[in-house]
Predict the 3D structure of the following.
Amino acid sequence: MIARAHKVGLLVHTWTFRNEQRRLVSDFAGNPVNEYLQFYRLGIDGVFSDFTDTAIVARILFDLERNPDGGRCLTGDRDGHRRHQADCPGTGD
């Protein structure tokens, strides 16, 4: 279904992700990030979450899975913030 939606130009978002253990399927080993990662790996474009910090961590981890070199965009160095390089997402420099 995700691929079909993308094929016609739609973005796919799902809801509502939560962190409480009682709401997690046992497949995720008690770690809510595993649930987010599964959905990102399936191809969804975004999530609605009651736990923004967990959602952001999961998206960063997913992006790093796909592009391990992308971590340099998250950190600075002694010569300035490397994240402002043109090939880093969200920058136009």
